[in-house]
Every structure is written in structure tokens, then in C-alpha cells.
Design goal:
This protein is mainly β. It is built from 5 helices and 32 strands. It is globular.
Length: about 525
């Protein structure tokens, strides 16, 4: 058992207690490089988290980088590979957060909840000059994931990158020819101000640019090079699309090219052909695109709900056929004939939601109503989440298990082991900034009622780990999952400004079993993180 007193940590620094000053510069220092296909790590690797200047859209600013690049390096692994990733905090720029943590988005962390990386939920953050090794095995998981800081709004400053677990026996491998580091496509927003400055804004925050694979342009800025995805005529490409944003959702299209969806958030699905895909924060899709058009250059478009323009190269990248000239495309958008419908995405592995196939008939039924208070803080069920002074996992290991004993008060929901849980999110319009992308750590869930529909599907609903809870007052998105993974798991809006302003809760899954499973295996460097103030 971890013999640590909760009282000893009562004075730990709260993530929001950060000084505010201007961090940006359009002239200082030289820009750090953006990530290239050569920037690839394996499952046993090291992340040096530090500060440097970078100008991915032509504007030079200090950022939080992994191994000196943005996006952070691609981490590649094969199914069932053990991970051991050493994280070293080398941050020095005190105009941004100096503490850090790394979350492995979409990885279940079965029996390794302590490695999930959520600050003040499953660990204390790393202080400068501290190191911590996240060790876990993503048992039976394969697909497209990502990793990012889970401390304050830090990943908006740059700490975010792709993670792909390849399945040598992929049941859909016959549908594509190419699937490698060159077919990973990251979509992110970029800001010229630091996350510390932006976190004080309680109205809509607008990014300065969209970056596709780490490159983009902003209004009135220079014509910086755009990312280029190279293809050969006749081949079929598995593009892994990853929403690395802090806020906007993207509408992803490729001029004159249809896409076939084969994976959603790490889950293989029956192939579905579409012409466009909405990608909310944290969501991932694998699509097969056949290079079957005339040799040339074609626009890749990622308009957002906050910026729909393509003027001056904004929200764009280039699909370039072998043999095409090195020049901007002249292609036109479309055609848009096959629309996206989330309800049409059906998993091919163990489809079906757990429990009695009727709304409200799960073992535990929870409604989480979103709202916003007069101070501008978001709430679930009239409670705004604020990080506790002690990680929820440490509280559980120290003997606290009933919800009444777990901090933060009103934001922790204790769930029993091996039960079916149903969570509904009625009327998402009561909190501005919708659609809210809701993410649950430690699980995928079956979306038995998707946004934009009152119909239910318990037979083969889409299975994922980030879901839009809709944009209509009549929406009531409902998810189901089974409590087969003891530990405290964060549930939150993945628009980082909303999370930072309270739109979150903790699902404390089987606390007694979590303490029993995790206490004997938690490493010494995890304990050490909570001994520093």
C-alpha cells in the first residue's frame, strides 16, 4: 500500500495558479523544425519536453515541444508491444506552464491507471528536471491514437503528437496498399498567444491558423510552405486522420477523391464511403483513398467550425501525385454526394452495446447535464470541476473510496465493478461552444443514441472514445460501457478551454479493486512526483 498522507499534499500547486505575461515574438530566435516522417519513435523511447521557438505558420513564438519538434514525434508500435516511455521535463520558459504530464489518448491502461497521465486524476505532474517512465501494454489494442499534455492547457502550446499501433493481422488490410508514417495526417489549431494568456478568456477563443501535419498559414501572414502528401497513381492509401486540436472541429475533404472509413478511434468498422468527415477534438479516423485521378496536385481541405476560408492557403495541404509539378493545386472542392452519418459506422469486432437494450435500463444510469454559470465556468450537473490538491488515484490508495470522501466534491462518480453504465447528455446547447466532444479515459463506449437522432441502436452502434453530444436542444446523446477496468478515469469535454473552465468529472471505477490491483505495481518514480511541491 502507498503510505502517503493526503494531508501532506494539501498545499500542492493547483494547475490554474500560473502567472500571466506575453510569450509571443514574431522576430526572436530561429524557428524550431516541424516534424518530418523521419521523426519516429518506438514504444520504448524518450520524450524530452522543452521550450524552443517555432513558426509553423510563419509566426515565430516560444512553444512546448517534444524532442524539439512540432507535432511531437510519431510513436509507432505493433499490437501487444510493451511501452516504456521516459518523460523528462526540461521546461524553462516561465511564461508557460513549467509542470507537465503526458496522456496516452485512447489507451485503456488496464491495470496501469497510474500511467494514464491525467494530472491530479491519476498522477501529480512532473516538475522541472523531473523524469517519469510510463510503462504499459495496450493489450489487444491497435489503431490510431495520440498523446498530449494533460496539464492545464499546455498541449495548446505544442505538446501533442500521433501514436499508431499496427496490427500485423489487420482484418481490413486487403483494402489498402500503403500504411506507414507518411500516411499519418494530423490536424491541429495554432495560437500566437500562450495557453496561459488564452486560458483567462471566458468567451470563444479563435485560433490564428490551422496546421495540417504541422504546417499552415494565417490571415495576412507569409506564404509559408504547406504540407504535401505524396501518392503514386493506382495505389490505395490508408490515411490516419487525427484531430489534435484544442478547440475547433474540422471538416476534412480531398478534392476529387472519395474516402472509405475503416477505423474510428481505434475500432475497425464496416467500410463506409464518404466525401467529407467531421473530426472533432481528439477523434481519429482511418480512411482508404485510391490515387485514381489524373496526375496532378489536389487540395486537401480542413475547414473548421471557426474558420471556413481557404483564402491565401488557409486550412489547406496538398495531395501530390508522383510526376506532378511542384506547384499549388488548381482543383475545385467536391464533389459532395456521400454525406457522413455517425450512425452508419458499425464495429466489426464484438458489435453490440452491453446491458438491457433499452434507454434507462442499464445497471447504473447517469445524466450529465451541461451548463454554464454566471462566472463563465462550465458545469456537469451544476458542478464545475476544479483539480483537487491530491490526485484522485492517490486518494483511493490512501483509503478514500465513497464518493463523499473523494475530491473534488460533487465531481466524482463512484461506479461498481462489472456493471453496465449508461450516461446521457441532454440538451448540449445549455453550454455555449457546442458541439462538445466528450472523451472518457480508460474505455471505448458504444454510442447507442448519436447526435441529430432520437433513434437508438443497441445491436451495432458506433464504438469510440470521443463523441459529439450534439448541437440541438433536442439532442440527448447516450453511451454505454462496462466497468471492467478499475481506477479513476477522467470524463471531460476535449475542447481544452472548456475543460480548463470546469467541464469535466471523474468516473471512479471500483475504487476498492483499484487500490488492490494498483498499489503493488505502482513504481517509485510515480510516488516521487507527489513529494515535490
Amino acid at each position: 500500500m502507498v503510505s502517503v498522507s493526503i494531508l501532506a499534499f494539501a498545499l500542492l500547486t493547483i494547475p490554474n495558479a500560473l502567472s500571466i505575461s506575453t510569450t509571443s515574438s514574431s522576430t526572436t530566435s530561429s524557428p524550431a523544425p516541424t516534424a518530418t516522417p523521419a521523426s519516429v519513435l518506438g514504444p520504448v523511447s524518450q520524450l524530452n519536453i522543452g521550450n524552443n521557438y517555432i513558426a509553423p505558420d510563419g509566426y515565430n513564438r516560444s512553444a512546448v515541444l517534444v524532442n524539439g519538434i512540432f507535432p511531437a514525434p510519431l510513436i509507432k508500435a505493433n499490437k501487444n508491444d510493451p511501452f516504456a516511455v521516459k518523460i523528462i521535463n526540461e521546461l524553462t520558459d516561465n511564461t508557460m506552464p513549467l509542470e507537465t504530464s503526458v496522456h496516452w489518448h485512447g489507451i485503456f491502461q488496464h491495470k496501469s491507471n497510474w500511467a494514464d497521465g491525467a494530472s491530479y486524476v491519476t498522477q501529480c505532474p512532473l516538475h522541472p528536471d523531473e523524469a517519469f517512465t510510463a510503462q504499459f501494454t495496450a493489450t489487444d489494442q491497435s489503431g490510431t491514437y495520440w498523446y498530449h499534455s494533460h496539464y492545464s492547457n499546455q498541449y495548446c502550446d505544442g505538446l501533442r503528437g500521433p501514436l499508431v499501433i499496427y496490427d500485423p493481422e489487420d482484418p481490413l488490410a486487403h483494402l489498402y496498399d500503403i500504411d506507414d508514417e507518411n500516411t499519418v495526417i494530423t490536424l491541429s489549431d495554432w495560437y500566437h498567444l500562450s495557453s496561459v494568456e488564452l486560458s483567462t478568456i471566458f468567451v470563444q477563443v479563435f485560433p490564428n491558423s490551422t496546421l495540417i501535419n504541422g504546417r499552415g498559414r494565417y490571415p495576412g501572414g507569409p506564404s509559408t510552405p504547406l504540407s504535401v502528401i505524396n501518392v503514386k497513381p493506382g495505389l490505395r492509401y490508408r490515411f490516419r486522420l487525427i484531430g489534435l486540436a484544442c478547440d475547433p472541429s474540422f471538416n476534412f475533404t480531398i478534392d476529387s477523391h472519395r474516402m472509405t472509413i475503416i477505423e474510428v478511434d481505434g475500432n475497425e468498422v464496416d467500410p463506409v464511403a464518404v466525401d467529407s468527415i467531421p473530426i472533432l477534438v481528439g477523434q481519429r479516423y482511418s480512411v482508404v483513398v485510391t490515387a485514381n485521378q489524373s496526375v496532378g496536385n489536389y487540395w486537401i481541405r480542413a475547414s473548421t467550425d471557426l474558420s471556413s476560408t481557404f483564402d491565401g492557403g488557409q486550412n489547406l495541404a496538398i495531395l501530390r501525385y508522383e510526376g506532378a509539378p511542384d506547384e499549388d493545386p488548381t482543383s475545385t472542392a467536391g464533389p459532395y454526394e456521400l454525406s457522413f452519418n455517425e450512425g452508419n459506422l458499425h464495429p466489426i469486432v464484438n458489435p453490440g452495446a452491453p446491458g438491457i437494450p433499452e434507454i434507462g435500463k442499464a445497471d447504473v444510469n447517469i445524466q450529465l447535464a451541461v451548463a454554464i454559470n454566471s462566472s463563465g465556468y462550465f458545469m456537469f450537473n451544476q458542478v464545475s470541476y476544479a483539480s483537487p490538491p491530491v490526485p484522485v488515484l492517490l486518494q483511493i490508495l490512501s483509503g478514500a473510496q465513497p464518493a463523499s470522501q473523494l475530491l473534488p466534491n460533487g465531481s466524482v462518480y463512484v461506479l461498481p465493478l462489472n456493471q453496465t453504465i449508461e450516461i446521457s447528455f441532454p440538451n448540449p446547447t445549455r453550454a455555449p461552444g457546442f458541439p462538445h466532444p466528450i472523451h472518457l479515459h480508460g474505455h471505448t463506449f458504444d454510442v447507442v443514441r448519436v447526435s441529430g437522432s432520437n433513434a437508438t441502436n443497441f445491436v451495432n452502434p458506433v464504438r469510440r472514445d470521443v463523441v459529439s453530444i450534439g448541437s440541438s436542444a433536442t439532442d440527448n446523446v447516450t453511451i454505454r460501457f462496462s466497468t471492467d477496468n478499475p481506477g479513476p478515469w477522467f470524463l471531460h469535454c476535449h475542447i481544452n478551454w472548456h475543460l480548463n473552465h470546469g467541464l469535466a468529472a471523474v468516473m471512479a471505477e471500483a475504487p476498492a479493486q483499484a487500490a488492490q490491483e494498483l498499489a503493488p505495481v505502482i513504481p517509485a518514480d510515480w510516488n516521487q512526483l507527489c513529494t515535490e511541491a
